[in-house]
Amino acid sequence: MSQRLGSYPPRFAAATLGLLAGFSGLCTPLHAQNTDQLQNAVPDRQRAVPVPVENLQQAAPPAAAQQPVPAKLPKPSPQDSVVSRLIAQLMPSEHVSGKDLDNTLSARALDLYIQTLDPLKLYFLQSDIDQFERYSTVVDDHVRAGNLDLAYYIFERFTQRVDQRVAKIRELLKGDFDFNIDEQVIIDRDAAQYARDDAEATDRWRRQLKLSLLDLKDSDEPVVGQEARDQLMRRYDRYANRWRSTSSDDILEMFLTSVTNSYDPHSTYMSPATLDDFNISMALNLDGIGASLGEKDGTTQVKAIIPGGAADLNGKLKPDDSIVSVGQGDDGEMVDIIEMPLKDVVKLIRGKAGTTVRLGVRPGGTGNMEIVKIVRAHIELKDSAARGKVIEHEIPGQPGKLKIGYLNLPSFYMDMEGARRNDPEYRSSTRDVAKILEDFKKENVAGVVLDLSRNGGGSLTEAISLTGLFIDQGPVVQVKDANGSVQKYDDDHPGTVWDGPLVVLTSKLSASASEILAGAIKDYHRGIIVGDPQTHGKGTVQTLMDIGQSLFRIRRANYGALKVTLQQFYLPDGQSTQLDGVAADIVLPSVISKMPVAEGDLDYALAHDRINPAKHDLYRMAPADLINSLRASSQQRIAQDEEFIELMRRIGLYVEQKDLKTISLNEDKFMQRRAEMKAQKDEQEKEIEAQIGSEEVFHDTFYNQEVLNITQQYIEGLRAQNLARAN
Fold it and tell me: Which residues form the PDZ domain (predicted)?
C-alpha cells in the first residue's frame, strides 16, 4: 500500500470527522483523490536486517535509576523491534530531507516524546527530565537497534508520576480553595517549568484545580460545589486509567512518531490498530460534523473546518477552538472529554446524518465555554463544489456599477469514480470553474475574484489544470524528492478560459494545492493576491507506506504504516511554498492571520528553500506601480472604515489574550476577564450569523466589500495602462 497524502495540515493524533473516504487520522483531502498525488514511486523493501548493537549497555538507562515495573505495564513485542529498525532505515532513505537519523534528531525525538506524555509539564519533576536528558544522543542508536528500553523507561516513570499526582488531586479536592487571593496560574507551555520537588508540584496542582473550578463555574451550564469537585475527580481518574490501559502498540506509536516528527511534523508512524481504523474509514462513508481535530495539551482542538460540512453550515465552530465536552441530541448529558484520548472523542462526535451533537466549546481555547449544537451531515461533492455569482459593485464616489464575477472554490476536487467510468458529465473543480467563467463572460463581467480563503487543498492535478484556465501553457509546479531530483508539472493545454483581470483571495488557511495555484498566478504576473500576509505554508507531499509490505513485499501481517514526507513543492520561479507560503500583494486585517494554525506554528517544520526557476511566460497583469497604488488606497479606506477599525480592535484583544502567560485565580478578576471576552464574542455574533450557510456564494461583509473595492480599482488601473484584456 502506498498512498499520497496532502491538503489540510495534520498533526500527530489528528483526526477528521464527518468524512468522505480518506478522512480519518490524517486530514487528507476532501475527496481523497489527493494528487498532492504524483507518480507512485515508493519502492518495495526487503526484510530489515538487524543492526549490530555496540555498547548498548552504555546507552540503556542504569539499573539504579529504574523503578519497579507496574504489574500492568505492557511489554514490547519482537514485532515492535522489527518495526523500529525498519523506521530507522526508511526515514533517511525516503524523507525529502535525506537526513541521517543523527544526534540532533535524537535530541528532538526525546523532547517530543516527553512532550507527548506531559505537554503542560505537570507530571514529571525536573529531576526526571535531568535523568532523561542523559540519553538525548542515543535515541537514534536505540531505534536502529530495535531497542525500546528507553521508551518504556520514560513511560514507566510517567505512569508513576500520574498515579502520584492523581492521589494528591484527590487530597486537594477534599480541602478548601481561597478564590479571594490574587495568585496566578501559568497557562503557556513554553513559559512553564517542571516542578523541582513534590511540594512545588502540589502547589502547581492546587492552582490548576482552582482554574478548573472557575472554568466549570463560568460556563453556559455552570457546575459548582461538590458536583464540580466530583467531576474533576472523575476526569483525572479517567486520565490515570487511560495511561494504565496503554498498549505496547500505543507506546510504539508515540515513541516512533516522536522520532519521525523530529524530521517534520507530517511524518508519523501509525500502529496496527490506527492503520486498521484508517483503512476502515477509507472504505466507509462516515457522517459527522465536518471538522479536522487534533489533540493539544490534553484538550481536543479544532484544526480546520471542512468546506460544505455540518460545522461549516453551522458557522460557529472555528479553527483553534477547544472542545471540552460532548452531548448527544438536544438534551443528552454533556460528557467531559478533557484528557480523553482523541479516538474516543471522535467516537462521541461521529454519528448518523440528521442526528444532533452538542459541543462544549471554548473559542480560541481560552474563552467562555459555550454550547454549539450541530446537526451531523454527510459531506457531498456538491456541498464543496465551486460556485459563482455576478456582483454589480457600486463604485465609491462614482455613478454606475461594475460587474465583477465572484468565484468561491472551497477545494480542488474530482469525481474519481465518474472519471474512471468515462462519464462525460463527471464533476471536477476545473470543469465546474470553466463553466462558471464561461457564464461570467456571457454576463460581460469586467474582472474575476477567485476566493481560495477557505481552500485547504486537494487534488494537485486539479490545481494544475485549473491554473491553466488563466494561463496559456507552461510550468505550474515543480517537485523535488529525497534524491534531489526535480520534476516539472506543466499546464499543457493551449489557450485560456479567462484572460481578464484576476484577483485571488487567500488566507492563512489556504494550503497546499491552493498555494500552488496562487503562487503560479503570482509568478506569471497573471493577477494579484489579496488577503492575509501569507498563506498556510504547507509545501510537502506525504506517502503512506505499509510496513508489512515493505518488509515482505506482500502484506503478510499488519505491522502498521509509515506516513513520510517524501517530496516538496516549488513554484515556477523556484521558491518553495513550504513555511513562507504565498505572500499577498495587498494585505487585509483578519483574526485568522493571528491564529497559530499555519505550518510555521508546528514544531520542526521543514525550512523554506528554493531551486532553479523554470522558464515561463510573464503577463503584464501585475504592474508594480499599480499594486503600490492599490495598497495605499486600501490602507487609507481601512483606516477610515468604522467596521475595520472595530475588527482591528478585536484582533488586538485576541492577540492580547493569546499571548497571556498566566491567568489570575482571583475570582472577581477571572470573571471580569471572561466577561470582557464574552462581550467581544457577542460583538462578532451578527457577523458570524451573516456568514452561516454554504448556499451563500458571496457574503456581503465589509471585508468582502473591500475586496471588491480593490478589484474595481485594479480593473480601472489595468484599463488606464491598456493592459486589461477584453473577453
Answer: 279-350
CATH number of 600's domain: 3.90.226.10
The CB density around residue 496, as the number of other CB atoms within 10 Å, is: 18
Together in a domain, 333 and 438: no
Closest CA to 455 of 288, 305, 286, 608: 305
**Among 595, 622, 649, residue at a domain's last position:** 622
Render 646-682 in DSSP notation, one character per residue. Answer: HHHHHHHHHHHHHT-SEEE--HHHHHHHHHHHHHHHH
| pLDDT digits 0-9 by tens, 450-501 | 999 999 998 899 999 999 999 999 999 999 998 999 999 999 999 999 999 9
**404 and 305 in a common domain:** no
Cell of 204: 502547581
Q: Which of 84, 512, 550, 664 is catalytic?
A: 512
Q: How far apart are CA 92 and CA 546, in angstroms?
A: 17
| H or E element at residue 212 | helix 198-217
d(C-alpha 357, C-alpha 348), whole Å? 9
Does 527 reside within a domain? yes
Q: Bridge-partner residues for 322, per DSSP?
A: 301, 362
Q: List phi, psi (to 5°) of 549.
A: -65, -40
CATH of the domain at 349: 2.30.42.10
How far are the Cα atoms of 545, 556, 717 from residue 549, in angstroms, in the given order? 8, 8, 59
Question: 592 and 505 share a domain?
Answer: yes
**Could you give the C-alpha distances from 215 to 255, 541, 671, in angstroms and in order?**
33, 40, 10
pLDDT for 382 equals 61
User: What counts of helices (H) and strands (E) characterise the chain?
Assistant: 21, 21
Answer whether residue 93 is part of any domain: no
Q: Which long-range contacts (CB under 8 A, 24 or more apart) does 352-355 make?
A: 352/287, 352/376, 353/287, 353/377, 353/378, 355/328, 355/329
Residue type at 447 in one-letter notation: G
Same domain, 364 and 502: no
As a whole number, mean pLDDT of residues 614-638 equals 97
- Which of 146, 149, 159, 153 shows the shortest CA–CA distance to 132? 153
Tell me whether residue 512 is one of the annotated catalytic residues: yes
Indicate the residue among 340, 375, 410 that finishes a domain.
Answer: 375
Whether the CB-CB separation of 183 and 207 falls below 8 Å is answered with: yes
Count the alpha carbons within 13 Å of 254 in the hemisphere toward its beta carbon: 23
The alpha-helical segments, DSSP class H, found in 296-447 are 310-314, 342-349, 416-420, 429-442
Residues 399 and 365 in one domain: no
Q: Is 421 helix (H, G, I), strand (E, B) or coil?
A: coil
Active site residue 507: no
pLDDT at 286: 53
Q: How far is CA 248 from CA 50, 81, 271, 690, in A?
A: 21, 11, 10, 49
pTM above 0.70, yes or no: yes
Q: Are residues 385 and 370 in the same domain?
A: no
Closest CA to 711 of 514, 532, 527: 527
CA angle 630, 631, 633 (to 5 degrees): 65
Could you tell me if residue 332 is inside a domain? Answer: yes
Range of the domain at 353: 273-375
Q: In this structure, are 562 and 496 located in the same domain?
A: yes
The residue type found at 354 is G
Is 248 catalytic? The answer is no
| Same-domain pairing of 355 and 295 | yes
Check 459, 538, 585, 590 and give the catalytic one.
Answer: 538
Q: What is the pLDDT of residue 85?
A: 96
Give the count of domains, the chain. Answer: 2
Strands (E), 571-650: 586-587
662/207 Cα distance (integer angstroms): 11
In a domain, 53, yes or no: no
CA distance to 525, 653, 659, 717, per residue, from 621 (Å): 6, 38, 40, 10
Q: Hey, what's the cell of 383?
A: 456541498
Would you state the cell numbers that stand for residue 328, as one nine-digit string? 448527544
Compute φ and ψ for 299, nearest 5 degrees: -120, 160
